[in-house]
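In response to the reviewer comment on reproducibility (Comment 2.3), we provide here a single inverse folding case reported in full, input and output, so that an independent group could reproduce the run without further information from us. The structure tokens appear first.
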């Protein structure tokens, strides 16, 4: 008989991190929150466009698109953070004799 209360293992946090670095929003898609990834993409494009219009003419590529790169970096950190939290909760609940109470963790984690 299989244990029906056991939850499947969450995505590997390092795999999510790699995916988020290679392709923006793909880490959020792997975690099952594609709307959050789409929001990051939207703000990445908007802030990249705004900084392009506000940056001086002699600024480099990174300087002209600094707003977009900022949101890109934040999206990588966000996807990795969610993956690490989910993995830590799963490891904690999978321990024999561990506390299996649901606690106060939000359902979207």
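Designed residues, in position order:
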């Amino acid at each position: 008989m299989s244990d029906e209360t056991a939850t499947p293992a969450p995505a590997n946090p390092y795999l999510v991190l790699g995916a988020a670095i290679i392709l923006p929003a793909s880490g959020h898609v792997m975690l099952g929150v594609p709307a959050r990834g789409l929001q990051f993409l939207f703000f990445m494009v908007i802030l990249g466009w705004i900084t392009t219009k506000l940056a001086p003419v002699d600024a480099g590529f990174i300087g002209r698109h600094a707003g977009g790169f900022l949101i890109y970096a934040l999206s990588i950190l966000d996807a990795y953070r969610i993956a690490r939290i989910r993995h830590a909760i799963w490891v904690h609940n999978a321990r024999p004799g561990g506390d299996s109470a649901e606690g106060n963790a939000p359902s979207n984690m």
